[in-house]
Amino acid sequence: MKILHTADWHLGHQLHGHDRRFEHDAFLDWLADTIKTRDIDALLVAGDLFDTANPPASAWQQLYRFLARLRAEHPALEMVLIGGNHDSPSKLDAPHELLRAFDLHLVGSISRDDEGRLETERLLVPLRGKDGEVAAWCAAVPFLRSSDLRPDGLGEGQDRLIEGVRQVYEAVLSEGRARCHPDQALIAMGHAYLAAGQLSELSERRVLGGNQHALPAELFAAADYTALGHLHLAQSPAEGVHYSGSPLPLSLAEANYNHQVLEVTFEGGKLARLERIPVPRAVEMIRLPQSGLDEALQAIEALALPACPQQA
Fold first, then answer.
1. For the purposes of burial, counting CB atoms within 10 Å of the CB of 60, is it exposed (0-12), middle (13-18) or buried (19 or more)?
2. Does residue 3 have a pLDDT over 60?
3. What is the mean pLDDT of the segment spanning 193-212?
4. Radius of gyration of the chain from Cα atoms?
5. 250, 295, 304: which is closest to 50 by C-alpha?
6. E-assigned strand segments in 52-183
7. What is the DSSP string of 223-290?
């Protein structure tokens, strides 16, 4: 089974007042082509689909148009998307039943029963290979807010937030592992800040699981692969735990990041290969000297830029 892991699209993003819709359209077109040419079985998007909790209508149109295109072009493609800290949980969850009718899994928040027990059913998604058989189970846990957490049995000195997140993942991954046959992989999804993770100071919000609440990577020890979002720089804080990074630079500090998506291949339930696929830049980000106006004007005149049509 071949899985494509991406995250932090931030649809609707503006950079210093400049709309990024053209760049996002180019990325989504490239992503659709990549899914086709690489014969991908499942697409995982690990949070921050949008840049704000109230994105413009054009951003929603981008997302739904893209999902509809993939479903039309790839009827058997598995698609699992989770909410991030920039997303509105309720707005992502609102079309849940409609999207499920098209076998699309969009999870904005966790839910609990009347007795406060975590409902793991909608968080566990079977991923099927080309033969129609389940090749993996995906634990699709969205960004966890403080109100989502109800930690039990806290010991002295234990952090309520970290232990609350730990217990959510323990419950979901335990149930996922129980469902896995020996030849099936268990994949964890999340949107959080792990200890030793490298932040982009200009574009990433401080969130639960960040700063003094940095999460330990051992939370995901039960998974065969962990697909994370939130950190815009692609990185791997621990073995088998990966941030795909954002596909576009979301601040000037990210101009030189290696923006990418990850192709993950499983064979017999085991991780066989991981390939980093660079995302092509539709619009280059160029930083000019900041020493003075004259130097900046000279740098502009010296630029050798290809001719391109002006975007409306």
1. middle
2. yes
3. 59
4. 20
5. 250
6. 78-82, 104-107, 124-128, 134-140
7. -SEEEEES-SS-EEEETTEEE---SS--SGGGTTS--EEEEEEEETTEEEEEEEEEPPPSS-------
| Secondary structure of residue 302 in the 3-state scheme | helix
Q: For residues 80-97, give the mean pLDDT.
A: 95
- Indicate the pTM of the whole model: 0.89
Stretch 43-55: mean pLDDT: 96
C-alpha torsion sign, points 49, 51, 55, 57? negative
Calpha distance 45→66 (Å, rounded): 13
pLDDT at position 137 over 60:
yes
Whether the pLDDT of residue 202 is over 80: the answer is no
Tell me which DSSP letter residue 120 carries. Answer: -
Compute the half-sphere exposure of residue 242: CA atoms within 13 Å on the CB side of its CA: 23
Query: Is 82 in a helix, a strand, or coil?
Result: strand
